[in-house]
C-alpha cells in the first residue's frame, strides 16, 4: 500500500502519477492528489495541512491532462510564479 508520493528531482512526474492512478481506477483523482499534498504533510507531522484552507497561504499547480499530463502553471503564496497568465 502506498500513502505518499514524493519527488525531489522531477516534480512534474507527481502530476502524471496522480492522473495515472486515477485513470487506472485504483483510487479517485482527489485521493490521488492527496497522496502528493495532504498525506505527505501528515506523514512527517507537518503543521501545514497540504490542503486549501481559508486563511492559510497555498501553493497551487495547474495541470493539463491532454494530450499528455503536464504542469502548465504554478502559484506560490497567491502569486503566479510560472506558466502563462491564466486569468
From TrEMBL:
Q: Which residues form the Amidohydrolase-related domain?
A: 19-81
Which residue spans traverse the membrane?
A: none
Q: Coiled-coil region(s) at which residues?
A: none
InterPro entries xrefs: Amidohydro-rel, Metal-dep_hydrolase_composite
Which named protein is this?
Amidohydrolase-related domain-containing protein
Origin species, per record, is Mycobacterium kubicae
Amino acid at each position: 500500500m502506498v500513502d505518499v508520493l514524493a519527488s525531489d528531482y522531477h516534480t512534474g512526474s507527481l502530476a502524471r502519477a496522480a492522473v495515472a492512478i486515477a485513470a487506472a481506477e485504483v483510487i479517485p483523482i482527489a485521493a490521488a492528489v492527496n497522496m502528493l499534498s495532504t498525506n505527505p504533510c501528515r506523514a512527517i507531522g507537518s503543521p501545514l495541512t497540504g490542503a486549501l484552507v481559508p486563511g492559510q497561504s497555498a501553493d497551487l499547480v495547474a495541470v493539463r491532462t491532454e494530450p499528455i499530463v503536464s504542469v502548465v502553471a504554478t502559484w506560490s503564496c497567491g502569486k503566479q510564479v510560472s506558466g502563462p497568465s491564466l486569468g
